[in-house]
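ESCALATION

Customer reports they have been waiting on this structure for their group meeting. Please prioritize. Original submission:
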Amino acid sequence: MRVDLFDFELPQDRIALRPVAPRDAAKLLLVEGERLQDRIVRDLPDLLEPGDVLVFNDTRVIPAKLTGYRGDARIGATLHKRLDLRRWQAFIRNAKRLREGDRIDFGSGVAAIAEERHDDGSFTLAFEGEEPVELLLSRAGEMPLPPYIASKRAIDERDLSDYQTMFAANEGAVAAPTAALHFTPELVAALDERGIGRETLTLHVGAGTFLPVKAEDTDEHRMHSEWGQISPETAVRLNEARQQGGRIIGVGTTSLRVLESAADQDGTILPFAADTDIFIKPGYRFRAIDGLITNFHLPKSTLFMLVSALMGRERMLAAYAHAIASHYRFYSYGDSSLLLPEK
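Update from on-call: job pushed to the front of the queue and completed.
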């Protein structure tokens, strides 16, 4: 399909630079079949049914954005995929000044060797020393806010908490699973009281999620892989919930991608621990999920293609037009939607 079929006009003032407070006070657009309804995130217990299960991504964002020097050349690096205990693949700013074998000094006693340049222009960075890389990043790194926020304001202390979900446990992401940023202990307690289940999986979100689709046709676009995991126990509980009539609702496109990667052709969710580069676009047959909670995505992005696959492209273009006209806030710190396709 042509990528420009997924384009729409978004006013710059609709891009949220800070989250609302409290988090569950954000707007929520219910898209249920052909119906649109304006609600707030706190209404979720009333919009879901007892027996439904929400699936959260428990990844934790690490301070994966680094700035250093190779000689007198200033080099920026955003880690996006762990390769082993000391090596990460990273997108590089000022990559023309970097060659294989060069040493980058990031300050605070943190340095890495640029081992290998990849076809997409990224590098493998091998960190020096014996300290855990996470400890090195805590000294020299900063939170890797999306470019549409970082280009408009400085990253600050608030982002250290604002850009983590309440479920964050397993370190390794360089982007937050932002749909879950809206959840609070009070909202979770209300969902529990309503009889709505809750499960977690892991997808360490990479910086590739922010990259624009440069191809003119979706068939020419290649996704970056990310590592995900579903435990055997979680898979069993999810399958049992579905067999009993409950709906599986992914909280965020990251959770959805792992669930769909783990499902077999009959929709049974299997244990999973592997990389996934699944690209969901119109024509895809969903197997594992019955709905999705997600923020509002960029024009011509793979994530807007994903929600179009779930609900229909025309339906989502209309929903986004409604959201823009109704002053919903877009992107990572923005408002939310609940997408429930027709059976």
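Sent to customer with the following note: The CA atoms of residues 211 and 307 lie 17 Å apart.
Escalation resolved.
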